[in-house]
Q: What sequence folds into this?
């Protein structure tokens, strides 16, 4: 068993393949209400992507948001469009707890902002 197998057990691989995730990602889990300040996370992510575009590992870093749907908050949609990260931010809505566990394990970092 190689080092890659230790970090990507079969269950994790199946979940990531089901969601077509084959890139490093930051993870936010929770509501997207205004006091959670998610538009600011998207803005910071946009800046970070620009800084990492030449990085060997993180040049294709993405942001995955699990919880509410983007359609609930216009400011969040606006932040994604304004930051030009429509192809790099994914909103998955709610996922089963077993799936959520895999996302926590596979994430490069977990972000938890608040005002």
A:
């Amino acid at each position: 068993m190689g080092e890659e197998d230790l970090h990507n057990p079969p269950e994790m691989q199946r979940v990531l393949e089901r969601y077509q995730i084959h890139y490093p990602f930051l993870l936010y889990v929770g509501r997207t209400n205004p006091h959670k300040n998610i538009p600011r996370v998207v803005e910071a992510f946009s800046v970070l992507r620009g800084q990492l575009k030449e990085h060997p590992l993180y040049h294709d870093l993405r942001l995955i948001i699990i919880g509410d749907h983007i359609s609930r908050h216009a400011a969040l949609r606006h932040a994604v469009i304004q930051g030009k990260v429509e192809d790099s931010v994914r909103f998955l809505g709610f996922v089963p707890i077993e799936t959520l566990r895999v996302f926590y394990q596979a994430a490069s970092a977990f972000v938890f902002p608040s005002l």
In short: The chain has one domain: 9-110. Residues 38-51 form the longest helix (14 residues). The mean pLDDT is 87.
